[in-house]
Specification:
Belongs to the major facilitator superfamily. Sugar transporter (TC 2.A.1.1) family. It is found in: Membrane. This is Major facilitator superfamily (MFS) profile domain-containing protein. The protein folds into 2 domains: about 425 residues, Up-down Bundle (Growth Hormone, Chain: A); about 40 residues, no CATH class. About 0% of the residues have low confidence. A two-stranded antiparallel sheet has the order 1-2. By secondary structure, it is mostly helical.
Length: about 475
């Protein structure tokens, strides 16, 4: 936006303000740097202050960071610091909220609700594009202060709304508050407190907490131990988040406006971003059904193929469009328009495919892969990996694109080819399995490409039921 460039940009040879690629990367990437720190930091607050209290703390930090940005006048340092502080809250909440959802959701809805979490994020991005589209023509700083400042409303909604939500029953049990935990589970499932569903849920959580306390407090290094193949689960969770960030979709989110302008399209960059946001929402809706019908593993494999094709075509077409130095101007303009339309078309298909497959699935897989003992730390490591590569992408992508243009999409194509191979070789199917059954599957050494047909042994299920009965008998 012109006022933003005037306040935080540089002056070119013609005396016009502009945002250099280096300043773009600093302003954009510092939020991602904050998210990395916040994703790890929440692991220290979610157990000490509870899931609900932790959400309250990090929501307040996010709101403060947004206020600092909104109050900025001409200082690029202030707006960057504000983005870093806001990023602390975003990163922490990106780990706490799936953790809270996973611990409070009924089992049958766990996968769907974790996809719904991703859908809400995509809807938020789409709303931000609509707001930008509506404010970019306003004269003065209101053009950018309004979309930045409106974020405080969402922070305040979360700050006040969290008081109306219950604490995680798992955290309540860990504090010895069984009666409160029982009431919460009954409330969340709309059944009486003496219902068999509540009884079984309490027994399962007590077993998990007992396992968590067995051997002392869980450490970060335990996530990489050979116990129950935790190192493999942690590595898989981190690798999926790494590959997700280098799918190429965030490049379109962050820099699609300036990128598409260079391809000769006649569409406004604000319109393009709004289109991409709407496509993301439309693509995530089918994932609510497909995550349980198609499964986690197949979703990742299909997504790698579809996104890889889109990035390859968009990268080649974009490069041919812009690399025509000896073409007459009238032909060059026609080629740019045609190439720009093709580039946008495959960018739209790329974002749609991502939203359906690679967008939500790594988060669902991350929430299902760890036993209760190390789950907060395992999710924190996966979330931190996501934000680390988000930071690196947002920092280096504009600099790389400034040098090689659309060929940057071929880097993402290579990552998607790698992602297909990694998923095929190392990612097992976890659809329909309990946390204990995931434990057994990893210990059994089943090949990931055969995991879809794997079933838990009767011996394991018998031992688990016997352990529950024994634990209950000891209490009585």
């Amino acid at each position: 936006m012109p006022d933003f460039q005037m306040r935080f940009g540089e002056i070119d040879a013609n005396g016009q303000p502009f945002l250099s690629s280096s300043r773009q990367s600093i302003i954009t990437s510092l939020l991602s740097a904050g998210t990395f720190v916040g994703a790890l930091g929440q692991a220290f607050t979610s157990d000490r202050f509870g899931r609900r209290g932790s959400i309250l703390i990090w929501s307040a930090i996010f709101t403060v960071g947004t206020a600092i940005q909104t109050a900025t006048t001409f200082s690029i340092v202030q707006i960057s610091v504000g983005r870093f502080i806001a990023g602390l809250g975003v990163g922490a909440l990106s780990a706490i909220v799936p953790l809270y959802n996973g611990e409070t959701a009924p089992k049958a809805l766990r996968g769907t609700l974790l996809v719904l979490y991703q859908l809400q994020i995509i809807i938020g991005i789409f709303l931000s594009y609509l707001i930008d589209l509506g404010t970019h023509t306003i004269d003065g700083s209101a053009s950018w202060r309004i979309p930045v400042g409106l974020q405080m409303i969402w922070g305040l909604i979360l700050l006040s709304g969290i008081f109306f939500l219950p604490e995680s029953p798992r955290h309540l049990l860990a504090l010895g508050k069984e009666s409160q935990a029982r009431a919460v589970i009954a409330q969340l499932n709309s059944v009486p407190e003496n219902d068999i569903l509540v009884v079984e849920a309490i027994e399962e959580l007590e077993l998990g907490i007992r396992a968590e306390n067995d051997g002392g407090k869980a450490t970060w290094m335990e996530c990489f131990s050979t116990r129950n193949m935790l190192w493999k689960r942690t590595l898989n969770g981190m690798m999926l988040q790494f590959i997700q960030q280098l799918n190429g979709q965030n490049f379109y989110y962050y820099y699609g406006d300036t990128f598409f302008q260079s391809s000769g399209t006649q569409l406004s960059p604000y319109v393009i971003q709004t289109i991409l946001g709407a496509v993301s929402v439309a693509g995530t809706v089918p994932a609510l059904y497909m995550i349980e019908s198609v499964g986690r593993r197949n979703s990742l494999l299909w997504g790698s193929v579809l996104e890889g094709i889109c990035s390859l075509i968009a990268g080649v077409v974009g490069h041919i469009t812009l690399a025509a130095p000896n073409t007459p101007n009238d032909q060059l303009t026609a080629r740019n328009r045609s190439g720009g339309s093709t580039l946008i078309a495959f960018a739209v298909l790329h974002v749609f495919s991502y939203s359906m497959f690679w967008g939500p699935t790594p988060w669902v897989y991350l929430g299902e892969s760890f036993p209760l003992r190390v789950r907060p730390k395992g999710i924190a490591l996966g979330s931190a990996t996501n934000w680390l590569w988000n930071f690196l992408l947002s920092f280096f992508a504009p600099r790389i694109a400034a040098r090689i243009g659309p060929l940057i999409l071929l880097i993402f194509f290579g990552m998607l080819v790698f992602g297909f191979g990694y998923v095929w070789l190392f990612i097992p199917e976890t659809k329909g399995l309990s946390l204990e059954e995931v434990d057994e599957m990893y210990r059994s050494g089943v090949k990931p490409w055969k995991s879809s047909s794997w079933r838990p042994s009767e011996k394991h299920m018998h031992e688990q039921a016997h352990e529950v009965k024994e634990d209950k008998h000891e209490k009585e």
